[in-house]
Amino acid sequence: GQQLNQSPQSMFIQEGEDVSMNCTSSSIFNTWLWYKQEPGEGPVLLIALYKAGELTSNGRLTAQFGITRKDSFLNISASIPSDVGIYFCAGQNYGGSQGNLIFGKGTKLSVKP
Amino acid sequence: DSGVTQTPKHLITATGQRVTLRCSPRSGDLSVYWYQQSLDQGLQFLIQYYNGEERAKGNILERFSAQQFPDLHSELNLSSLELGDSALYFCASSVRGQANTGELFFGEGSRLTVL
To answer: How far apart are CA A3 and CA A25, in angstroms?
Structure first.
């Protein structure tokens, strides 16, 4: 079945640094999404991308839908301690059910004050 | 607070037992989804219900079943439990009025430990 390769698996950065993580797939997706999960919580949607090449921002977060439709990246600028958590990419195809999101295995972000 | 409520938050049981996890979706959301999160497998889609009917099935074991009731709450039943069923089980609901956008609202999860 479809799989998403998310990298890096984990990151340890200093407060104020920029962060970049990405997700690749062997097959195309029509929608890419980025979720964040904090300890003891469920994933929360950060950004949704619906068109190839689309670049979308949400505060200090910027995500892009790759032009090949097989990849996406998420950037976080000027990281702060509350950015700590696990970031998941997810892909979806039309024709499949809405619930059948394919999730990456996550990038665990740690931020040192 | 996502508006999705899951109970119980924690559950410890023994192999061979059966448990029921409950989910109340956000007010007005018709779709409910169940996901399993384990350390090695990440987030795996189990099943989706829309307005009481099964809409899609993922990698759900035959020992697991779910249903959505007329008041839209959902239950996930796990039977003949095995050690490997220990995981976080998430319920999610979709945005009211939107279809196939992938935008899901997750509950806080039910942590199941099978001893």
So the answer is: 6
Summarised one tens digit per residue, pLDDT across range B80-112 is: 999 999 999 999 998 764 556 778 999 999 999
Q: Kindly state the average pLDDT of the residues A61-78.
A: 96
CA distance B15 to chain A (A): 25
pLDDT at B2: 87
DSSP at A71: E
Give backbone dihedrals phi and psi of B75, rounded to 5 degrees, phi first. Answer: -130, 140
Name chain A contacts of B95, Cβ cutoff 8 Å: none
CB contact under 8 A, B102 and A90: yes
| Alpha carbon of A76: minimum distance to chain B alpha carbons (Å) | 20
* A96 confidence band (pLDDT: 50, 70, 90): low
**What does DSSP say about strands B19-24 and B5-7: parallel, antiparallel, or unpaired?**
antiparallel
Per CB distance under 8 Å, which residues of A are interface residues toward B? Answer: 31, 33, 40-45, 48, 50, 88, 90, 92, 94, 96-106
The end-to-end CA distance of chain A, in Å, is 40
Q: Considering only alpha carbons, which residue of chain B is nearest residue A47?
A: B103
Cα dihedral A88, B11, B64, B62, rounded to 10, equals: 100
Tell me the pLDDT tens digit for each residue of A14-38: 999 999 999 999 989 989 999 999 9
Name the residue type at position B19: V
